[in-house]
Amino acid sequence: MTSTRNKADLFNAMGIGPVWELRSQDEPSKPDAMASGVGLDEMLPASLSLESLQEMVAVCKKCGLCETRKQTVFADGIPHAPLMVVGEGPGVDEDATGRPFVGKSGQLLDRMLKAVGASRTNNTYIANVVKCHPPGNRNPEQAEIEQCSPYLVQQIKASGPKVLLLVGRFAIQTLLNTKKPVGELRGVVHQVTLDGRDIPAVVTYHPAYLLRRPEEKSKAWDDLLLLKQQGLI
Ligand code: URA
């Protein structure tokens, strides 16, 4: 069990406090949640590698976001890493650099990952639901998500993570095929089923939301502990 001292250090790393005691790990876990991903499975050739997929994405013109993007933003981190983080879509900084999660919310994501011994230089692969920056930082539209999510699904299959961390409602709702809010979905381990394989998926709030609502960071901490408790990273 994490000691209170260690926990205080980790909380500091995430910029949060005070230190709360963990729920007893003897407490019965909540039942595993729904299987998911209805119809997500059969959209691109199963053998497509990450490299081929990235080339395909780089020239994609399936939706209007191609008109305003500077470049596509495919992924960062370690391909085939045990942990894959899925976010929403590139912001201005990501559009400029071609790398996901490099702005302020990316910096918080890095601190959150570090708190559980994960990083994009070590054991984590990071991607988004949509690969192009929605202008004005607006939310991605449903049609854009529908056009782009087959790339994400193939990206997950080709990278082969042991566990997923889904941050924010667009990643969560897309991969769990639900409209429920994040608050109703967190606290249990979900399964994303692709090619008949169940991939455990932990959900949490988007770092951009946590920057606006720091009082919610302790819930994100609980989510990260749930991720760590899976013993897969
Ligand atoms: N927010 C996201 O969801 N993804 C990014 O890459 C950057 C910000």
List the helices and strands and how they pair.
Layout: H1 4-14, E1 35-36, H2 50-58, H3 65-68, E2 76-77, E3 83-87, H4 92-97, H5 104-115, E4 124-128, H6 142-159, E5 163-167, H7 169-176, H8 182-185, E6 190-194, E7 197-204, H9 207-212, H10 217-229
Parallel strand pairs: 1-6, 3-4, 3-5, 5-7
Antiparallel strand pairs: 2-4, 6-7
Lateral arrangement of strands in the main beta sheet? 1-6-7-5-3-4-2
Mean pLDDT: 87
Rg value:
17 Å
Under the CATH scheme, the architecture is 3-Layer(aba) Sandwich
Count all strands and give the number: 7
| Terminus-to-terminus distance | 16 Å
H/E order of the elements?
HEHHEEHHEHEHHEEHH
Helix proportion: 25-40%
User: Can you say what the CATH homologous superfamily is?
Assistant: Uracil-DNA glycosylase-like domain
Q: How many helices does DSSP assign?
A: 10
Structural category is alpha/beta
Task: Give a verbal description of the structure.
With about 230 residues, this protein is of the alpha/beta class. The protein has helices at about 5-15, 50-60, 65-70, 90-95, 105-115, 140-160, 170-175, 180-185, 205-210, 215-230, and strands at about 35, 75, 85, 125-130, 165, 190-195, 195-205. The chain has a seven-stranded mixed β-sheet with strand order 1-6-7-5-3-4-2, with helices on both faces. It has a single domain (about 45-230), classed as Uracil-DNA Glycosylase, subunit E (3-Layer(aba) Sandwich), CATH 3.40.470. It is built from ten helices and seven strands. It is about 40% helix and about 15% strand. The site of uracil (URA) has 12 residues, from helix 5. Uracil binds near residues 101 and 105.
